Structure prediction request, 367 residues.
Amino acid sequence: MEEESEIWDAIVIGGGPAGSTTARYVAEGGKRVLVIDGRDSIGSPLQCGELVPTNNEMRRLCPDVPDIDDLLQTPEVAISRRTSEMHIVPPSGRPLRYPFEGMMLNRVLHDEWLVELAASKGAKFLTGARVESVDGETVCLRDGRKFQGKIIVGAGGHNDPLRKGRWSESSLKIPIKFVLMKGEFGDAVELHFGSMAPGGYAWVFPKANGANIGLGIQNKLSKGKSLNSLADGFISKYQGEVTFRGAGSLPMSGSIKQFVKDNHLLVGDSAGMVLPSNGAGITIAMIGGRIAGQAIVSHLDNGTSLHQYEKEWKRQMGSVMRNSKISFKMGSWIMRLPDWVLNIAFNPITKPFVWRFVTCRKPFIIF
Ligand SMILES: Cc1cc2nc3c(=O)[nH]c(=O)nc-3n(C[C@H](O)[C@H](O)[C@H](O)COP(=O)(O)OP(=O)(O)OC[C@H]3O[C@@H](n4cnc5c(N)ncnc54)[C@H](O)[C@@H]3O)c2cc1C
Prediction:
């Protein structure tokens, strides 16, 4: 049982990829860190498409992020299968094919492993404990308990209580539904675009013995069609026993302007650390978590400003995030076009540009 009287160096709300990674690096720096999570098994239930790029692919996607292999350690048990191609599929169903080294995770095991990794460095975890609010250096739980920390980190995802209490900036959220389905679904990860997923995309990601299939939309572009009916329509095209149904929400405005207010920090989804042009959030949350953790240690040891975290994020991820936001905005506009126009637009000539959009590079080399 964690002592309520103790003053922690840092308290992290949420033990997902962002929170566990922050805690790992704070603990590695020799500091006392407590992670508080509302779930009693962190990572369950599944809320994810479960696709991450391999570390090689991450080095290409995020060239300014150092030591990727130290940050992103994925144990074999958490990998369902590896993939080597991505298909971008317009409404016609005729894909543009790209080489892409991906890993389909067993996300629940992946998140449990991140918790174990942080714990092995000395981080403490309090689970099944929901945070209600934060008041200065005090974290107040729903059950009435209170914990004190010199620094408080909001890593509670898109409904983080610290973000809700202290930040007024709003983020566009994309609602998502997905299923796990048994069967054989080929070798490529597929992203489908068109009127079947207005303003978003649908996916079919093959796993070892089935697939993760899902769909996310922008409500304002869905012309009255509900997420449920669009998801059912897309998923029903595939045959197989559905073994799990899940839903969630993804922040798609890119990272927010300010991550630090006094001794309060946000990281991961709560700070908008998702690449809007492809929905990648797991590895990006971990990049943010490492920078936040290291900035906290340096602040506690040497009095360095916590705003160093924002500066370092911009240095490592600024251009990737900027390009991804531009791609998402242009993509949202293009995706309003009728399906027959999209079918023409996704062609061998535009193929390299489409890939630049998805992989967060400048859409056109000239600007
Ligand atoms: C349906 C779906 C599919 C996705 N697919 C992919 C994908 O294929 N690839 C990819 O890279 N990304 C994907 N993402 C995004 C990815 O899951 C997130 O970006 C990532 O999980 C962010 O990590 P996080 O630690 O910031 O937040 P989370 O993983 O959401 O973790 C937040 C933690 O905080 C806890 N918490 C929340 N509120 C409180 C509170 N008040 N008190 C205590 N604890 C609290 C939660 O229990 C949770 O454990 C998907 C997201 C969704 C919703």
Observations:
- The chain has a mean pLDDT of 93.
- The longest helix spans residues 308-334.
